[in-house]
Amino acid sequence: MRILIVEDDALLGDGLRAGLKQAGFTADWVRDGVSARLALETERFAAVVLDLGLPKLAGLDLLRQLRVAQDPVPVLILTARDAVADRIAGLDAGADDYLVKPCDLGELAARLRALIRRSAGRAAPAIEIGPLAVDPVAHAVTY
């Protein structure tokens, strides 16, 4: 599953990319809102991890642009803004989830799996096709 990380902090962005890779995701990382918009216009992502305080184009403005364009990509806001009003604004702007920094990488990965699962119309984490089952949580394939 390919994830777009939109984070301007180099240390945090690199850590998120490495942590999500370890959790089984393929993660692309951009550092500003304009680069994120370009990536989203040219590539397909299973989900987006979006910071709000970005250079060139604020995260909330990028999110609003995505939703006006009816882009259904699941968006998880990951930000240091922890006020209830900020969470409400983010969710009302079209975010699918909101997490405050610092966060546990395991929780972030689980929330992303849930968002991707729901966006695909599935409730269970395993994908089953006949006798073949893929469980992304357990990193297991059974036949």
List keywords for this structure.
three-stranded antiparallel β-sheet, five-stranded parallel β-sheet, 8 strands, about 40% helix
How would you explain this protein's 3D organization?
The protein has helices spanning 10-22, 33-42, 59-68, 84-92, 105-119; strands at residues 2-6, 26-30, 47-50, 75-79, 97-100, 127-129, 132-135, 140-142. It is built from five helices and eight strands. With 143 residues, the protein is of the alpha/beta class.
Question: Could you outline the blueprint of secondary structure elements for this entry?
Answer:
Blueprint: E1 2-6, H1 10-22, E2 26-30, H2 33-42, E3 47-50, H3 59-68, E4 75-79, H4 84-92, E5 97-100, H5 105-119, E6 127-129, E7 132-135, E8 140-142
Parallel strand pairs: 1-2, 1-3, 3-4, 4-5
Antiparallel strand pairs: 6-7, 7-8
Q: What's the number of extended β-strand segments?
A: 8
Task: Write down the overall geometry.
Answer: globular
Number of helices: 5
**Could you give the order of the helices and strands?**
EHEHEHEHEHEEE
Intertermini distance: 21 Å
Précis, in short:
This protein is of the alpha/beta class and 143 residues long.
